[in-house]
Every structure is written in structure tokens, then in C-alpha cells.
């Protein structure tokens, strides 16, 4: 299993970022996937989940601001993040839900 997240960066409060995760080494279209994040000095925090059938769920604090999606033709997972807040600052990881495997994360920093 290989998972490579990208798209992070420095953004001002209220800004947007779109994270991508390129997946390989497993049958992506039939796999549930989720995003988690880890802020400095804190434990990992679940953010959002998407099932193989497209059903989604979100952490309460990101509902209405984040959108998870997938493109099975490209074996890619996405996280569109709008109206970002400083408390969203963290390293974001994509995770294969069944095995809890995750790859390299991407840093998101929200600061003025």
C-alpha cells in the first residue's frame, strides 16, 4: 500500500486548500478511505471518511467547511478545505480505513 498526500501549504484564515492523495498497491475503488490530522504536540484526530459507495462523514468542527471526495479512475482521494481556521493547522494524512495504513502527510498551516 502506498499513499502520498500533497497540496498542503501556508494559507491565511478564511482561505482554501485542496489536498490530494495518490493511492496504489490495493484496490482503491472498493476501499473506504479517511483523512486524519495531527497537530504539533497532539494525538491524531479523525477528520473525514468516504466509503466505497461514496457515503461521507465528517468531524463536527469541519462540517460545512471540508468536503471529501474520490476519483476512482485516478485512484485519488481529495479533501477540499474552505474557510480554514488556525485550529486546522496540522499534518494531514490519508488513510486506508481497513488496514489503518497511512503514508506521508502534507503540512497545512493556517496563519495570518
Describe the structure concisely.
The chain is mainly beta and 112 residues long. It has strands at residues 2-6, 9-11, 17-24, 33-38, 45-50, 56-58, 66-71, 76-81, 90-96, 101-102, 106-110.
Give me the number of helical elements.
0
Share of residues in helices: under 10%
> How much strand content do the residues show?
over 45%
Q: How many β-strand stretches? A: 11
Order of helices and strands: EEEEEEEEEEE
Which class of secondary structure composition applies to the elements? mainly beta
Low-confidence stretches: none
Average pLDDT level: 97
Strand count, sense and barrel status of the largest sheet are:
7 strands, mixed
Can you walk through the features of this model?
The mean pLDDT is 97. This protein has strands at residues 2-6, 9-11, 17-24, 33-38, 45-50, 56-58, 66-71, 76-81, 90-96, 101-102, 106-110. The protein starts with a strand and ends with a strand. It contains no helices and 11 strands. 31% of the residues are buried. The chain is mainly beta. A hairpin with a 4-residue loop joins strand 7 and strand 8 (76-81). Helix content is 0%, strand content 51%. The chain is globular, with a radius of gyration of 13 Å.
